[in-house]
Amino acid sequence: MSEQKENKRLEDFSYALGLSIASNLIQSGVKTVDPVNFMNAIEDAFAGKQPKLSVQQANQILQEFMSEQQSGDAANNLEEGLKFLAENLNDPKVTETASGLQYKVLTDGDGEKPSATDEVRCHYHGTLIDGTVFDSSVQRGEPAVFPVNGVIQGWVEALQMMAVGSKWRLFIPSDLAYGERGAGGSIGPNTTLIFDVELLEIV
């Protein structure tokens, strides 16, 4: 392989590796970094230089930074979610249950209603309150099969009220979804979720 091709191959590999690392960091909740110090640390590591921080110091800094960021995100997400749900009740077609779950009936079904111990087949499309799609069986083109009592609490409650053939839009407060822990990626701590759920059958 010529030197030019080898250099190009290394350039492409390095860029691809950078994309992969950045993607993993973003998925972990890291929003931004100082690019100069980030690159300095990488260069020091590859050059075998003595790092400016010990492993223990680095781990402590990472833990403290991520904890502070998560706490801030949790508070912001909770506030935004509560505001959204309060305003959502201005829609006369939205119903709120005693638990705080909100739903809108898009299509009324006339089949049976599942119990908590049943398995169901559903199509669903999940978004954040800003419209970001985080999961969708509709986009995958394959409905999901799962036990009613094996999903988040907002779903457990809603599914038992839905008749087969129904399609509902669920507005799920964080305490009926993934709570303070979140679910990684797009679903941060205290995140309110929206799902369009179509109950296809009880299996």
Describe the protein's architecture and organization.
By secondary structure, this protein is of the alpha+beta class. The protein is 41% helix and 21% strand. The protein has a domain at 73-202: Chitinase A, domain 3 (Roll). The termini are far apart.
What attributes does this structure have?
PPIase_dom_sf; 203 residues; 5 helices; Chitinase A, domain 3; seven-stranded antiparallel sheet; EC 5.2.1.8; alpha+beta; PPIase_FKBP_N; peptidyl-prolyl cis-trans isomerase activity
Most strands sheet: 7 strands, antiparallel
In DSSP terms (H or I, runs of 4 or more residues), the helix count works out at 5
C-alpha Rg, in Å? 23 Å
Helix content: 40-55%
> What fraction strand?
15-25%
Give the averaged pLDDT, no decimals: 92
What's the end-to-end separation, in Å? 58 Å
Structure at a glance:
Belongs to the FKBP-type PPIase family. The chain has 203 residues and is an alpha+beta fold.
List the SSEs and their pairings.
Blueprint: H1 3-27, H2 35-47, H3 55-88, E1 94-96, E2 102-107, E3 119-128, E4 133-136, H4 137-140, E5 144-147, H5 153-159, E6 167-172, E7 193-202
Antiparallel strand pairs: 1-2, 2-6, 3-4, 3-5, 3-7, 6-7
Protein name: Peptidyl-prolyl cis-trans isomerase
GO biological process, one term: protein folding
Domain PPIase FKBP-type: 117-203
